[in-house]
Amino acid sequence: MVAFTRRAAIAAPLIAVSSPGRAQAWRPAGQVRIIVPAAAGGTTDIMARLLAQHLQAKWGTPVVVENRAGAGGTIGTLEMVRARPDGTTLMLGNIGPQSIAYSLFRNLPYRADQIAPIAGTIRGPNVLVVNPSVPARTVAELAALLRAQPGRIPYASTGVGQSTHLSPVLMLQMLGAEAIHVPLRGSAPAQIEILAGNVAFLIDNLTGIIGHIQAGRVRALAVTSAERHALLPEVPAMRETMPELAAYDVNTWFGLFGPAALPSEIVNSLNAEVMALLALPDTRRRFAELGGVGMPGNPDAFAVFVRSEIAKWGEVIRKEGLQLDAG
């Protein structure tokens, strides 16, 4: 549902890495496939291919990546849910189909309890930008404009229900403000609208729009993560900017999942391999290029995190009165 080739993060993980011990001895009986519920080229796909390469080298067994894009990531997720729980079918999922979708889609063909969270991989924030013609140099000044003109100032997103839509929705809810949503089909058309001045603000993937920020074509007001980001050290985190936004913390995230009945031995073994991948210097360097950070932690901690994200976005979506049909 969401791509992260252009995302970044500084938020430190809150979960500790565990060592599953002898569970690491598990190996698949045959070829493993990792389903990607998104198109090739985005961070979901990139992360799956990094993991596939790592697992194939470790096991000496073919590990293939299969892209099953469509319906906001729900098509690929459903295929994984229906697979045999033997460790040969896994999925590299993300914030969309694994948290937002449960509240966004009224006829979602799977449930959260049909999916086993295995390990987090990478996460990162978006960034709030305005067109230079907008007379706001801070979030507080933008909030004042929004409150002075309720429901009249337009903002762009990369699509209804995307993180670039729900991030500003959460901001507006916290501020008690209203604006006009202009959904576009992807980041490129959304950026065209903000550059042309047809919309006042946009919350987009950090690394996708940072070139425009550096060139002065848009003005960055805040990053959405709990902490500032190394790529824009002078730009505050949203929660720094106003008391009303003190609890604001949004990161797009990605992780490994399997069918719910996957044995704990397999879950722990896979988690250990993901943690080994995250610890490699080459992985950390690649994540920095993507603008993200790793998500170390054991399966239970990742499951708790996923449940918290489901609850968080469910509240935002219900308050907004937003629902779509899956498919």
TrEMBL record:
Domain of life: Bacteria
Coiled coil: none
Database matches in InterPro entries: BUG, Bug_dom1
Keywords associated with the record: Signal
Keyword presence, Signal: yes
Signal peptide: 1-23
Keyword Flavoprotein: no
Record CDD domains: PBP2_Bug_TTT
Pfam families (UniProt xref): TctC (PF03401)
SUPFAM superfamilies: Periplasmic binding protein-like II
Membrane-spanning intervals of the chain: none
Record family assignment: Belongs to the UPF0065 (bug) family.
Name the UniProt record assigns to this protein: Tripartite tricarboxylate transporter substrate binding protein
Organism: Neoroseomonas eburnea
Lineage, top ranks: Bacteria, Pseudomonadati, Pseudomonadota, Alphaproteobacteria, Acetobacterales
